[in-house]
Amino acid sequence: MSLSPQILQTYFMWLRQLDVETRRTLIERLAESVQNDQVTENKTVSLFGSWQGNQTAEEILADIYANRNVERTIESF
Question: What average pLDDT does the segment 40-63 reach?
Answer without folding.
Answer: 79
